[in-house]
Write a structure and sequence with these properties.
Blueprint: H1 7-35, H2 42-65, E1 73-75, H3 76-87, E2 92-97, E3 101-103, H4 104-120, E4 125-132, E5 135-141, H5 149-153, H6 169-180, E6 186-189, E7 193-197
Parallel strand pairs: 2-4
Antiparallel strand pairs: 1-3, 4-5, 5-7, 6-7
Helix pairs in contact: 1-2, 2-3, 2-4, 4-6
């Protein structure tokens, strides 16, 4: 008996796939406008920045929420490209150390956890991601954290907390993904840091 397809992940993949082309086309159009005389206007720069940000978010969401089979791989260079684009203009910076060829499933879990950390770092901070022989370690550090205990407790519970909104859905998805990968997630929260290991 085969596993049922993850319809939510397939929907996310479809949405991201269908949006990436038109956003890329808008980016190309903006680039052509900047080549015209007087094309270096502030409003064009704002559109260009917004398109780049949307493109980065969609690529990030495609990995986080999209379908990923057990054998799929992703290159470290692609992960770094997504995180570099995501960091541009953002308050959170990322450093990533891993093998060059990665399990897409593992990266999906890391990206879901990065979104959890983003929620805790509204004032900015640094996130270090390391993959070693014993697994993954993600360390977030900031001068100030903003934590919702109910959301962080949801990371190891199969049921989503009551009243969870779309802006925190990644917290609900972590427990499912950890179970799907037969992993064990450890969470250590300090005054100015959060360490996640699996």
């Amino acid at each position: 008996m085969t596993d049922r397809p993850d319809l939510a992940a397939l929907i996310a993949s479809r949405i991201c796939h269908d949006l990436i082309s038109p956003i890329g086309a808008i980016g190309n159009g903006v680039e052509l406008l900047t080549m015209e005389p007087g094309g270096q206007r502030p409003e064009i720069a704002l559109i260009s920045e917004s398109v780049a940000n949307a493109n980065a978010r969609i690529r990030f969401f495609r990995i986080s929420f999209g379908a990923a089979s057990g054998g799929q791989r992703i290159a470290r260079s692609e992960v770094l490209s997504v995180l570099t684009d995501l960091t541009r203009g953002g308050r959170v910076s990322y450093a990533w150390t891993s093998a060059s060829d990665l399990s897409r499933r593992e990266v999906r879990l890391v990206f879901l956890l990065l979104q959890c950390l983003e929620s805790a770092l509204p004032f900015g901070g640094k996130v270090q991601v390391d993959q070693g022989d014993s697994g993954w370690t993600i360390l977030a550090e900031a001068a100030r954290l903003k934590l919702d205990p109910a959301l962080w407790q949801a990371l190891d519970r199969p049921a989503a907390p009551d009243g969870i909104g779309a802006n925190h859905v990644h917290f609900a998805l972590v427990a499912d993904e950890v179970a799907r990968q037969n992993r064990r997630l450890a969470v250590e929260i300090g005054e100015t840091s959060i360490r996640l290991t699996f």
